[in-house]
Q: What sequence folds into this?
């Protein structure tokens, strides 16, 4: 069986049911918004340059992607989803949810990008105690930190660092994800190298939806 070789629930699902690359390009544009070619290459480890060019051209022809020349100081081509392309986002969410059980094991060759966590965190998780004060957790995993915050019962996530996080969690992607999913508890996660600074209880506020 061919594999994308990516540690991402959507990619794992597409290993089984999907064609290669097109929906993952939609994933990138859905998460990032208008993106440069180099941004897409970073978020699609393993894709050949000519394959990305061909897929973007095909997606333009099919009305899924548009390109525009950004003015200075960017002065480069930006790719974005059309309205038709954005209609695929709920489909990607359903595939990612279906693929979540496939995330139990991470192959040594599986790539990971931290921004892939945004969609799962915001749609598969909620605040376990929405009646309490909001909390902010900074996850340091993968290629960049991500800030996770409770917001009126929901979870919001974005790449970057928090000025005054309630907790800072550092660890390998599979350990952080396993802890959030309830695959193992905090003590077991620490044995696997996870480090928590600040209030560990803040991390428990980020809980899988029933």
A:
């Amino acid at each position: 069986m061919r594999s994308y070789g990516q540690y991402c629930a959507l990619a794992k699902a597409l290993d089984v049911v999907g064609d290669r690359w097109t929906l993952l390009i939609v994933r990138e544009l859905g998460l990032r918004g208008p993106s440069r070619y180099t941004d897409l290459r970073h978020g699609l480890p393993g894709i050949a340059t000519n394959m990305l060019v061909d897929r973007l051209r095909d997606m333009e022809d099919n009305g899924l992607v548009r390109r525009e020349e950004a003015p200075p100081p960017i002065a480069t081509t930006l790719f974005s989803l059309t309205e038709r392309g954005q209609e695929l986002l709920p489909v990607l969410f359903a595939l990612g949810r279906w693929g979540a059980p496939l995330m139990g094991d991470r192959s040594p060759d599986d790539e990971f990008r931290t921004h892939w966590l945004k969609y799962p965190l915001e749609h598969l998780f909620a605040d376990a105690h929405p009646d309490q004060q909001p909390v902010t957790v900074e996850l340091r995993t993968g290629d960049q930190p991500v800030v996770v915050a409770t917001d009126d019962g929901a979870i919001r996530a974005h790449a970057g660092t928090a000025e005054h996080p309630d907790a800072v969690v550092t660890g390998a992607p599979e350990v952080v994800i396993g802890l959030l999913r309830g695959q193992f508890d905090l003590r077991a996660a620490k044995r696997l190298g996870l480090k928590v600074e600040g209030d560990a209880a803040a991390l428990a506020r980020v809980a899988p939806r029933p």
Observations:
- The two ends are 32 Å apart (CA to CA).
- The domain at 9-103 is CATH 1.10.10.10 (Arc Repressor Mutant, subunit A).
- The CA atoms of residues 38 and 74 lie 13 Å apart.
